[in-house]
């Protein structure tokens, strides 16, 4: 990471003259719990600049003084081998001007955690060590000795149980004292056989300070980073040879061995051994025997995910109508009425209330299911199960070049692609994460279900359930094939060998789970809300205005920009069976690129020639109170309905009655009739396949951009549209082959040929990446 | 300092160990990144590990220090161990 970025990090954390405290430690040792304890809800979650590593900072009020607290990513070591998380943590510790570092260590596993304390001490930053989970260590029969550890380290040590808040008072006192008089941290001095060559090497290195150079020298000797110039490479070789000659060991082994030995000796001074054996550890082993077993591991995981999915979406549905109707009442009708009363012109009222308000209404509608998904994800992570799930699924997923935990976001994606894309962060390996993110847009989200329903009602009455199910399966298959295709061409490589710590099972703390879910939901609302509000305006304007003889003016939908644009685009969709007169179907697709929820709405609007006059009537004389009361009444009704949907979360049973299915799709009868006239069953199926595969929605595109950058987002969109078009064309042309064999054969050959070209293109990209990596390696060697 | 226990018996692969048994690691083979990653989690030559689960089709779960570490099948084949006498269990308890 560049120094510029490191400075950005440092600047980002400091505001005014608030002292900055950084929390560092291994994953799963209560780092975030401690962070929550210090900052409460006063937190900011974002990204570290330029990388998709979560950045958390917050404000703590300690002893009447405000302080800025930064939660560094949890890493096992600062030296190397830990990816972007580690780069961020190391860069921050070496380059920022944090006033104090709190190193949190697990009392039950002191030796390994102290190995990172050793590394932290090499940064020279004032340090306080929190010995966390002393209760678990005691239960295991260990006798934590914080005084002994403090003496061995030369810095304050606070024994704590962060989950219950035990020891927090002492921590506060220690922080106050440490800020007043920073504890002096002595960088460790090795035996001369190592220290002298290190010093010689340091002289050859760039860097601003002693500690930065020394840290880099350690990394070079331990062989976790590549020398930047040939001069440095020679100096490293010289130092390594010297250490080898003096110690009789390979330099990397000698230095690492020294560090581990130090951790071992220091741990002995910080921990006594009792004679009792605890039960907590035993419980975890009993659960693991079942959860990780060869035969039950996969079924248990699938059952857990099914439960999460059903509870999030069926449970969320209880409140979905409430959120929908309350936000519609307040944001659309309420705002519209307010603006109308204020005397603003009708068009401004319509655009603000209908466009922005309508867009935000869409976002709020999905708060209950998405919020619940985030809660369950946090529960799975905090309980310790997520790591087991990754292990249980690893073998199966590895065959497709994916890490074991890639399945979690996919299941979430059935509800909504946005949290699925954001949730792909649970995957450490950047390659696996990229592939997983690119798979998500193909999962049939709940918004797509409304479109499936409307068409299934019309064309696939008896077999509606099967058609919808087939679309779900098709989405899964395409997602896996996408991972295989891209993983074998553009981003070649193997899934990282599976190595993961399994934290002991713990009862998750409600506070921490809710905080985590809330932070993620906030990101969803802020980022996605902004996009949808903007797109809402565009979508609201497009069907309402058009090009008339005298210029741009409001017009009916038939002559609007949306209609004209759709008519112009319709020929592109003719190969998949959309005839010229069926241009509203294309309008639906354009609207669907913004949000799948509005496809049926757009069709309703077009087919019913709904004009904005009756909207204005709503703003003039709204019945806000009545609407709010009606919204509240949906909760008990939906709660009753939930009981019946547990075995059928998609609501496929609705196909038993035509009214229920129509209602589930949200389409009006006029729309259904128009759909029946515009499509054949075959073209309807092709259309649905296109709806499944092409861009998910604006919100998902925003999430893609955030997680994998503009380039891969652009690829994902183009790939989805192309694949959707190709698949739909293939289906339609194969189905109508007998009618026009020649043109069908040409279309089919064209689609297959284009797909072949895509594979070749992706391979070339992959070749270039590999070649560039080789070149870089060769340059470093010379 | 830890002691290296590679002075007696032939090293075996971790695959040969049975659930509940303990052994000292004698060698961690594989790529540099792999070796470093395992070392970060405490799995390195000389360290005592206990097999908590497996080895099965998926791999194995080891106890090392106070932590449990799950390793895929491809990883455990690269870890060589020195088999322990049955007295190891008492040694563990004493630690």
Features:
heterodimer; A: 782 residues; alpha/beta; Rossmann fold; Helix Hairpins; seven-stranded mixed beta sheet; two-stranded antiparallel ribbon; 32 helices; 12 strands; 66% helix; 8% strand; globular; B: 95 residues; alpha+beta; SH3 type barrels; six-stranded antiparallel beta sheet; 6 strands; disordered N terminus
Major β-sheet annotation of chain A: 7 strands, mixed
- End-to-end Cα distance of chain A, whole Å, is 23 Å
Helix-strand makeup class of chain A? alpha/beta
What CATH calls the topology of the domain at 3-180 in chain A is Rossmann fold
DSSP helical segment count of chain B? 3
CATH architecture title of chain B? Roll
Judged by helices, strands and strand pairing, the structural class of chain B is alpha+beta
Chain pair forming the biggest interface: A-B, 47 and 37 residues
Overview of the molecule:
The complex is a heterodimer of chains A (782) and B (95). Chain A is of the alpha/beta class and 782 residues long. Chain A contains 32 helices and twelve strands. The longest helix of chain A has 45 residues, at 297-341. Chain A is globular and about 85 Å long. Chain A starts with a helix and ends with a helix. Chain B has 95 residues and is an alpha+beta fold. Chain B has a single domain (12-94), classed as Roll (SH3 type barrels). Helices cover 21% and strands 34% of the residues of chain B. Chain B contains three helices and six strands. In chain B, strands 1-6-2-3-4-5 form a six-stranded antiparallel beta sheet. In chain B, a hairpin with a 5-residue loop joins β3 and β4 (59-64). The longest helix of chain B has 9 residues, at 32-40. The model of chain B is unreliable at 1-9 and 86-91 (pLDDT under 50). Classes of the chains: A alpha/beta (782), B alpha+beta (95). The A-B interface holds A 76-77, 80-82, 106, 108-112, 115, 137, 140, 223-224, 256-257, 260-261, 264-265, 273, 277, 284-285, 288-289, 292-294, 297, 387-388, 391-392, 394-395, 398, 497-504 and B 1-2, 30, 32-34, 36-42, 44, 52-54, 56-59, 61, 64-75, 93-95.
């Amino acid at each position: 990471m560049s120094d510029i970025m490191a400075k950005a990090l440092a600047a980002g954390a400091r505001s005014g003259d608030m002292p900055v405290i950084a929390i560092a430690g291994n994953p799963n040792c209560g780092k975030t719990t401690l962070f929550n304890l210090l900052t409460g809800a006063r937190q900011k979650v974002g990204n570290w600049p330029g990388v998709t590593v979560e950045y958390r900072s917050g404000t703590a009020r300690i002893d009447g003084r405000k302080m800025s607290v930064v939660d560094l990513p949890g890493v096992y070591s600062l030296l190397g081998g830990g990816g972007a998380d580690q780069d961020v943590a190391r860069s921050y510790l070496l380059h920022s001007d944090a006033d104090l570092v709190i190193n949190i260590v697990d009392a039950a596993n002191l030796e390994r955690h102290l190995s990172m304390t050793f590394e932290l001490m090499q940064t020279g930053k004032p340090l306080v060590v929190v010995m966390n989970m002393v209760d678990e260590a005691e239960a295991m029969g260990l006798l934590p000795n914080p005084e002994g550890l403090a003496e061995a380290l030369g810095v304050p040590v606070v024994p704590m149980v962060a989950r219950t808040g035990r020891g927090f008072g002492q921590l506060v006192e220690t922080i106050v004292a440490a800020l007043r008089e920073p504890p002096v941290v002595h960088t460790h001095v090795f035996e001369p056989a190592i220290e002298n060559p290190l010093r010689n090497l340091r002289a050859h290195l760039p860097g601003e300070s002693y500690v930065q150079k020394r840290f880099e020298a350690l990394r070079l000797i331990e062989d976790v980073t590549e020398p930047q110039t040939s001069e440095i490479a020679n100096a490293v070789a010289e130092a390594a040879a010297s250490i080898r000659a003096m110690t009789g060991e390979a330099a990397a082994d000698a230095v690492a061995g020294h560090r581990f030995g130090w951790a071992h000796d220091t741990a002995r001074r910080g921990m006594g051994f009792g004679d009792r054996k605890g039960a907590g550890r035993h419980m975890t082993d009993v659960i693991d025997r079942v959860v990780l077993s060869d035969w039950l591991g996969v079924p248990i995981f699938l059952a857990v995910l099914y439960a999460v999915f059903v509870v999030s979406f069926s449970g969320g549905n209880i409140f979905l109508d409430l959120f929908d109707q309350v936000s519609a009442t307040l944001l659309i009708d309420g705002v519209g009425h307010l603006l109308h009363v204020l005397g603003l012109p009708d068009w401004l009222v319509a655009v603000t209330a209908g466009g922005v308000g309508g867009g935000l209404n869409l976002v709020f509608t999905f708060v209950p299911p998405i919020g619940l998904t985030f809660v369950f994800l946090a529960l799975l992570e905090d309980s310790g199960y997520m790591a087991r799930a990754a292990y249980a699924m690893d073998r199966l997923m590895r065959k497709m070049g994916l890490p074991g935990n890639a399945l979690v976001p996919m299941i979430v994606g059935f509800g909504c692609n946005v949290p699925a894309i954001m949730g792909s962060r649970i995957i450490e390996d950047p390659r696996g994460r990229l592939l997983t993110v690119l798979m998500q847009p193909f999962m049939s989200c709940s918004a797509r279900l409304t479109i499936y329903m409307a068409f299934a009602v019309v064309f696939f009455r008896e077999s509606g359930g099967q058609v919808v199910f087939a679309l779900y399966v098709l989405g899964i298959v395409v997602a896996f094939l996408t991972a295989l295709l891209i993983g074998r061409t553009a981003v070649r490589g193997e899934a990282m060998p599976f190595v993961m710590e399994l934290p002991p099972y713990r009862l998750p703390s409600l506070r921490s789970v809710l905080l985590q879910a809330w932070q993620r939901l906030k990101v969803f609302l802020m980022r996605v809300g902004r996009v949808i509000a903007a797109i809402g305006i565009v979508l609201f304007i497009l069907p309402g205005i058009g090009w008339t003889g005298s210029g741009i003016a409001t017009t009916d939908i038939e002559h609007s920009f949306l209609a004209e644009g759709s008519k112009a685009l319709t020929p592109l969709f003719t190969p998949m069976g959309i005839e010229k007169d069926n241009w509203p179907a294309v309008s639906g697709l354009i609207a669907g690129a913004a949000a799948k929820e509005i496809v049926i709405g757009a069709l309703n609007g077009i087919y019913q020639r709904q004009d904005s006059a009756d909207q204005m009537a709503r703003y003039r004389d709204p019945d806000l109170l009545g609407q709010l009361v009606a919204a509240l009444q949906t909760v008990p009704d939906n709660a009753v309905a939930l009981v019946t949907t547990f075995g059928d979360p998609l609501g496929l049973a609705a196909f038993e009655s035509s009214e229920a299915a129509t209602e589930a799709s949200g389409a009006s009868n006029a729309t259904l009739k128009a759909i029946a006239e515009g499509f054949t069953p075959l073209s309807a199926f092709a259309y649905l396949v296109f709806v499944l595969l092409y861009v998910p929605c604006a919100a998902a595109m925003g999430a893609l951009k955030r997680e994998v950058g503009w380039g891969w987002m652009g690829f994902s969109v183009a790939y989805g549209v192309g694949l959707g078009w190709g698949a739909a064309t293939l289906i339609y042309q194969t189905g109508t082959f007998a009618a026009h064999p020649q043109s069908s054969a040409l279309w089919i050959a064209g689609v297959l040929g284009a797909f072949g070209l895509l594979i070749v293109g992706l391979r070339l990209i992959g070749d270039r990446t590999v070649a560039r990596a080789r070149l870089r390696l060769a340059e470093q060697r010379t | 300092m830890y002691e290296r226990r590679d002075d007696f018996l032939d090293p075996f692969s971790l695959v040969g160990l049975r659930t509940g048994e303990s052994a000292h690691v004698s060698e961690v083979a594989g790529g540099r990144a792999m070796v470093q990653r395992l070392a970060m989690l405490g799995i390195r030559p000389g360290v005592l590990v206990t097999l908590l689960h497996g080895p099965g089709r998926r791999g194995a779960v080891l106890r090392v220090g106070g932590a449990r570490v799950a390793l895929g099948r491809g990883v455990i084949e690269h870890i060589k161990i020195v088999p322990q006498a049955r007295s190891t269990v008492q040694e563990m308890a004493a630690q």
